[in-house]
Amino acid sequence: SSRDEPFTEYELNARTNRFLELFGGMGSSIPERFSYKSQNTDPISPGQITISHLLAAGAHLGNNTEIFKKSMQPFIRGERAGLYIIDLEKTLTHLRRAAGVVRDVAQAGGLIVFVNSDELTRPHVAKAASLSRSPVISDRWIPGTLTNPRVFEGMQNVVKLSMSDNVLSTLSSTEHPAKPDVVIFFNTINNKTALRECASMNVPTIGIVDTDCEPGLVSYPIPANDDSVRAIQLIAGALGKAAQEGVEQRLS
Amino acid sequence: MLRHSLGRIAVHRYARRQIHQLPTLKRIDEYRNSGIPGLYSPTGFGAAWTEYQTYLLDRLSELTAGTDFEDKSPLDIVLKTSRTPEHSVIFNYASLAFNNHFYISALNPAKEVRGIPPTVEERIVRSFQTVEALKELMFQRALGMFGNGFVWLVELPEKVDVGRPQLAVVNTYNAGTVFDEARRQQLDLTGTISSEQAEAAMDLVKRPPGALGRADVLPILAVNMWQYAFLQDYGPAKKRDYLENWWNSIDWDVVGQRLFPGPDLIAH
């Protein structure tokens, strides 16, 4: 604003924001505290996840004992407060196994697809997928994605990449886009169509299975709580990190 | 509390785990050993800063533990609780913690104080005609206080003739804060109040907080007139000496940083 005009709203806001940035922390010094937001920018890698992390994220809390799938019995530790408690040692081993699969697929140049099932977990899954520039299905798995593939109107720049991520050629409208080499789910109950498609097209799947889920539906189950956003953030971050490591190894 | 045991108490406090820790001053070790030469002796500095600030932060940590305010900075808490009576205790401690730190962090040992930079002097002169006039005004306001409080030099969101915000002197009694008009507590309640003043105060409370919860009046400089700040070294009768020493200990570079540099210097 010029000399004769009063400060504009923008200028006043900028003035206050500057002051708060410089002096807003005055009065005390507060030590850094853990924040879940930091998980998205730099997730914990699967090799460093401990049972304490899983416990803090609530990955051990299964569902109600009334809606239990008997094939989940090997993964249950016990019962408490009407819930089945998942054995976190099994969670950890299965998570590491799945992470190994993801890492090897990424290193071999495979296509990894993340499938999100819930709005709350959308940013976390998207961020985990972006670490290895993997595609993520955020909204809804359109039935026939694998079994009835088409090039949709909104699809742009579908390209073939070499092993060092150089563009080889673009796909024509008649060519079939690549089949994923592994698909990662975070909720098996809401993705029955997708799981069946992957099974019929021989696409390996990784998925979080809760105590009311059928572990046989996925190739590499990870027994954990699928209702906790923090648990999904943790596991998605771990798998995303594993994919990133695989990609880095491939490109180096 | 015996003053000679201050060192022991200070060490014990630092060893405790509290959310709010004593903020570091740039020369805290020096100050702890020799005070702020020209203003505070070591015990005076301990009483004005170390002991009292630790007390405020301990109480603030205790009161906010387990609540939403747990890990918020004192200024955050002040801006959020200034209008809610049920949080007035938390507000008091947070406000005083901020005010005290704001006051102390603009001080320098008197020998090392450099003159007022031209930009700062220009701004002061534009609002108060001379730096001496500002000094006298702040002194008068401080000496006229019967009771505890702070005297502030604040920057208003209005412009004076050449496009920079205007400065003013404001009193805040007890733990009042400059950021919210309704909690500035700038009415001297130790004297009689006219009905106009009372009405004006009531009007302030009724007015909603600033647009977007923004604080428009920003502090630049403060002097602590709470008794704990000067009683140890000066006693109750020598307020003027305390004020003179304070004026000679102001780090004007710090004050300059607090002033708004102007819209043309903001990166878009």
TrEMBL record, chain A:
SUPFAM superfamilies: Ribosomal protein S2
Pfam families, A to Z: Ribosomal_S2
GO cellular component, one term: mitochondrial small ribosomal subunit
InterPro entries per record: Ribosomal_uS2, Ribosomal_uS2_bac/mit/plastid, Ribosomal_uS2_CS, Ribosomal_uS2_flav_dom_sf
Gene Ontology biological process terms, A to Z: translation
UniProt KW keywords: Ribonucleoprotein, Ribosomal protein
One MF annotation (Gene Ontology) recorded for this entry: structural constituent of ribosome
PANTHER family: 30S RIBOSOMAL PROTEIN S2 PROKARYOTIC AND ORGANELLAR (PTHR12534), SMALL RIBOSOMAL SUBUNIT PROTEIN US2M (PTHR12534:SF0)
Family, per entry: Belongs to the universal ribosomal protein uS2 family.
Protein name as annotated: Ribosomal protein S2
UniProtKB/TrEMBL annotation, chain B:
Gene Ontology CC: mitochondrial small ribosomal subunit
Residue span, Manganese/iron superoxide dismutase C-terminal domain: 120-178, 216-258
Signal peptide: none
GO MF term list: metal ion binding; structural constituent of ribosome; superoxide dismutase activity
PANTHER family reported in the protein's UniProt record: 37S RIBOSOMAL PROTEIN S26, MITOCHONDRIAL, SMALL RIBOSOMAL SUBUNIT PROTEIN MS42
Annotated function: Component of the mitochondrial ribosome (mitoribosome), a dedicated translation machinery responsible for the synthesis of mitochondrial genome-encoded proteins, including at least some of the essential transmembrane subunits of the mitochondrial respiratory chain. The mitoribosomes are attached to the mitochondrial inner membrane and translation products are cotranslationally integrated into the membrane.
Protein name: Manganese/iron superoxide dismutase C-terminal domain-containing protein
